[in-house]
Amino acid sequence: MFSRPLSEISVGEVLRSVEESLALTKCVENDQKICESVNSCVTRKVWKKVTDSIADIVDSMTLEELIEEGGCGGLKGV
Prior knowledge:
Elements: H1 11-19, H2 42-60, H3 63-68
């Protein structure tokens, strides 16, 4: 089913393949400047930090870890 061992596939990879981006807002996705207030927006910095933190977490988790922790009971034996 998978071309690599589950221990080598990060949750982040899977999410990006399904969702295209992990960014919570468009303005922090690839540092897009889609808003005229991008340089003075206080909340943009918050969303950027939150998005980066989420990316760090899901990139550090593997599918194997999820299965071992019981998060994907239906995938046991994959």
